[in-house]
Design brief:
The protein is 63% helix and 4% strand. It is mostly helical. A two-stranded antiparallel sheet has the order 1-2. The chain has helices spanning 8-17, 20-50, 54-61, 76-86, 94-99; strands at 64-65, 72-73. The protein has five helices and two strands; from the N terminus they run αααββαα. The chain has a domain at 62-102.
């Protein structure tokens, strides 16, 4: 009895994938791609629905701008501290002069 050799398609699959186990994974390849695309679409919809952008929120919080160096600050107290430390010879701007009584110790 002559030894049995694998058929040509099996040999091609073995050459391409290296083992018989991998050729079975090929059947799930299309399903895997579809699943990844579906998941990516779902993630994009979730992100769009969430709609929260940290950069935009942080930028919106910076409402005070130094008139000398154009640095932005979130609140008048920080603005005053910045102005006194970075620009000590420059007089306080009018928006800080209004709030100066609130932080005196």
């Amino acid at each position: 009895m002559a030894p049995r050799f694998p058929t040509v398609p099996v040999l091609l699959l073995l050459l391409r994938f290296g083992s018989k186990k991998s050729c079975y994974d090929m059947a799930r390849g299309q399903q895997k791609i579809q699943s990844q695309q579906k998941n990516a679409k779902k993630q994009a919809e979730q992100k769009k629905k969430q709609g929260h952008d940290q950069k935009a929120a942080a930028k919106a919080a910076l409402i005070y701008t130094c008139t000398v160096c154009r640095t932005q600050m979130p609140d008048p107290k920080t603005f005053k501290q910045h102005f006194e430390s970075k620009h000590p010879k420059t007089p306080l701007p009018p928006e800080l002069a209004d709030h100066s009584h609130a932080w005196q110790n």
